[in-house]
């Protein structure tokens, strides 16, 4: 079997993936891992209605759930703080 030519740029890789091309020969999964977050804990926040409207406008624009967006933002902020940034 002929080996596929590797993608030379991320744009080319994305284009080939989006076109439905089999990309399994183009990636190295030998060091891939699965992250398993710990036990989930429910929290409740009281947030100003205007802030919720702003969050909803953003989530509608990018097409995600409100809770998912807030989780991503919290995760990014925690990583930034942990790295000293």
Q: Poorly predicted ranges (pLDDT <50, ≥5 residues)?
A: none
| Sheet/helix structural class | mainly alpha
Order of helical and strand elements: HHH
Could you name the CATH class of the domain at 36-85?
Answer: Mainly Alpha
Any idea what the CATH superfamily of the domain at 36-85 is called? Met repressor-like
* Biggest sheet features: none
Would you identify the CATH architecture of the domain at 36-85?
A: Orthogonal Bundle
Q: What percent of residues are in strands? A: under 5%
Tell me roughly what share of residues is in helical segments: 40-55%
How far the N terminus sits from the C terminus, by CA atoms, comes to: 49 Å
Question: Under CATH, the topology of the domain at 36-85 is which?
Answer: Arc Repressor Mutant
């Amino acid at each position: 079997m002929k080996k596929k030519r590797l993608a030379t740029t991320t744009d080319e890789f994305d284009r080939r993936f989006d076109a439905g091309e089999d990309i399994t020969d183009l990636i190295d999964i030998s060091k891939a891992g699965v992250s398993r977050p710990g036990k989930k804990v429910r929290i409740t926040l009281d947030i100003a209605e205007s802030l919720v409207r702003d969050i909803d406008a953003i989530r509608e624009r990018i097409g995600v759930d409100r809770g998912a967006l807030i989780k991503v933002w919290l995760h990014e902020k925690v990583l930034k703080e942990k790295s000293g940034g």
